[in-house]
Structures are given as C-alpha cells and as structure tokens.
Amino acid sequence: MVKHFRIQHKNVHRALGDALVTAKLFLKLLKKLKEDYNYENVSDLVDFQTAPQVSKSFRLVKKKLVGDLASLPDSPGVYFFRDAKDKIVYIGKAKSLKKRVKNYFSSSAARKAKKIARHANRLGFHVTKSELSALVLEAELIKVHRPQYNTMLKKFSQNYFIKVKLNHDFPDVKVATDFDFDGNDYFGPYSNRYTATQLREIADKTFALRECSDKVLMKKKKCYLLDIKRCLAPCIDEVNVKEYDDELQNVYEFLSGKNQNAVNRLLAKMKNLSERQKYEEAAEIRDTVNMLLNQLSRSSILAEPINKVNALIEIRDSEFTDYILFLEGRVFLHDYYIKEQDYFETALDDFFEGTFHLLAGMEDKDLEKIKISLSWLVKNRNLVRVHYLKDYESKNELFTKLKFTTSEIQ
C-alpha cells in the first residue's frame, strides 16, 4: 500500500511538474505574443481565431492588422504600413489592394516584404478610381512622407523632352532637360535621355529639317545633308517657309504617335538605295526602321505637344472608370486624394469660360504626374479614349458625349 502511495505521489508530482512547465511555456508564449503581436490575454487569441481569415497562406499577424487586412477591398488604390508610433514606414500602390497586400504575409513573400510586415503595426489604404490614379498618388505621397522602406520615388527623376524651337523661321528639333512656357513646343516627358535621343535621331533621319545650330545656319553654306536629301537646306535659301512648315508638321505627327508616314518614307528611301546598290546606306535606313518599330508601342497617346494639349482622357474597363484632364501642361485627376488649388471640374469650367491662366512655370510634381500618366496611358491605350476640348462648345456638351451628368463626375 505504501509502495502504491509512493507511485501515485510520484505520478502526481510528475503531472504537476509537467503542468508547471506547460504553464511557464504558455506564459512565455503570451509574453512573446504581447511583445511581437500586441496580444494581451487568452481572449485576444480567441478573437484572432474567430477573426475573418484573409488567406490560408498567411502567417500569424499582429492583432491590430487582422481587421485592417480583412477590410481591404478588391479595388485599385494606395496602401500604407504604419509602425507602433503610427509613422508611415512604407507606401505602395495596387490594382487590387486585397490581392497585393496579402502577399506581404505569405510564406513565399520576398525578404523585404516580410521585413515590412514584421515592422508594421497598422495598415491604412485609400481607394482610387483607377490604377493610374494610384500610381500618381503613390509617387506624390512617398515624397511627402519619405517612408523608411521606400527606396524609389523619394526624389524627382530627371525629365527629358524633345523641344521644337519655334522662335525661328526654320525651327529645329533638340533634346532638352527643362520645360518652360517660352513659346516653344515640348514633347514628352521621357524617362531617360536614350529614349528622347533615339526619337530625335529617327526624326532627323526620316524628315528633312535642319540639324545644324543657328550659328552654322547663318554662315549660308550647305552641308552633306543636302546631298543625301536629309535636309531642305534653308541655309542656302532654296526652301521657303511654307515648305519647311509642311515638313515640320510631319515631324509633329510623328512625335504625336502617328508613325505610318515615317515608316512609309523610310521604306521608300531604303528601296531606292537598294536599287542604286547603295547597300551600306540602305542598311542604315533599315536600322532606323527597326528603331522606329521598336518605338511604336511607346509612342505618345496625345496628338499635340504637352504644353498645348487640352484634353479630357477617359479610362474605362469592366471594373472602373476614371478621368484625367490635361490643360496646357497641367494635369488634374478626377477625385484626387491630395486636393490641389485647382480642382478637376473647376479647371474644366475655367477652360470653357476662357478664364484658365497658366502659371509662370511648372513644378517637379506636375512633370512627374505627366510622365507617370502618359507612360500608363500608352501601355493601356486599349482602355483609353481622348476627348480634345477644342471639339466641344461647352462642358455640358462634353459630358453628354461621355454619357454622364455633372453630378456623376463630382
């Protein structure tokens, strides 16, 4: 009997010991959960278990993030990860907020995404009407908040333009890094010098505008470009202004994305050179054609220089509708999160009432909006319709064409 009692006592002692170890482990786990995930007690764990599940691939997320993740819509927009001090540590954009953000908590997420998720304490978001609005908003907010984990877009990038110098009887086409309301026309902006230089090179080899400087032009001496029929030679007065302007108009069409005329010209030149057995020169034209064909998918979607275009751009697909307004170098996004001095519809009213006035210059954020917008619009041209304001007598006529009322766009 004594032996039996000793065995029972030993078993109870062992059970108590196991329970104590389990309790210690449980308390240690709670402490860890409190430090890492802000779970205070057992009820918090129960709440987490009964909370809406965002994805089976998710790992354990912090308590305050559970509801944030569950509330994400399947819509385009911008999302913000905040730390325990409510400071924004990362800003991102998405065509679908729900699908994009859940990837940060997937076991297959990238190292940086997992690091952001571990650091994050809360998640915020703002729904936009299109992926384009989200792109523009992301770029602007990153420069405002300068989040810790955003390495890109903190600074305004260099812009490149193709400048047509109109303050001359015989304008030339050059690459420029500045945009100004100086009476000249500007195409772009382009994200890098290579693209702008390549477009100018195609224009030089396809059309017959002068390529020389004003100083060389004043010397009144022809160069080899006349001999190879690559210039109308205004330097020796063998061309009138009207003929030169007609050729300039061809360049404008090319820079506005109408490439067929350029392709036809180059192919005709190549055929002519081949027939004359000038194969080396024909090969050079062939390379220019290849350059041009490579640029087709990246051509501008606007038929006018950026400093002159007045157009409402309609973006429609099965999931959203958005509107962007270009007014002579300015961009206004419909229902934009960051409110500006000039609102979308106010700018439209000013245009049709003749009270829209340009500011003295453009800010970097204006140029970035243009660049981001044009890049997205070109890539998604199948979703886009451009309405040039000069084709409408009033805002109401424009709205009738778009088949919505004033109240629907506000």
Strand percentage, roughly? 5-15%
N-to-C span: 90 Å
Any idea what the shape is?
Answer: elongated
Task: Characterize the main sheet.
Answer: 4 strands, antiparallel
Encode the helix/strand succession as letters: HHHEEHHEHEEEHHHHHHEEEHHEHH
Widest beta sheet: strand line-up: 9-8-7-10
Q: What labels would you give this structure?
A:
alpha+beta, disordered C terminus, 10 strands, single chain, three-stranded antiparallel β-sheet, about 400 residues
Q: What's the layout of helices and strands?
A:
Blueprint: H1 2-37, H2 42-50, H3 63-70, E1 77-82, E2 88-94, H4 97-102, H5 111-119, E3 122-127, H6 131-145, E4 160-164, E5 173-176, E6 185-190, H7 193-206, H8 214-217, H9 224-227, H10 241-255, H11 260-275, H12 279-295, E7 310-316, E8 321-327, E9 330-333, H13 344-353, H14 364-379, E10 384-388, H15 395-402, H16 406-409
Antiparallel strand pairs: 1-2, 1-3, 4-5, 4-6, 7-8, 7-10, 8-9
Helix pairs in contact: 6-14, 7-12, 11-12
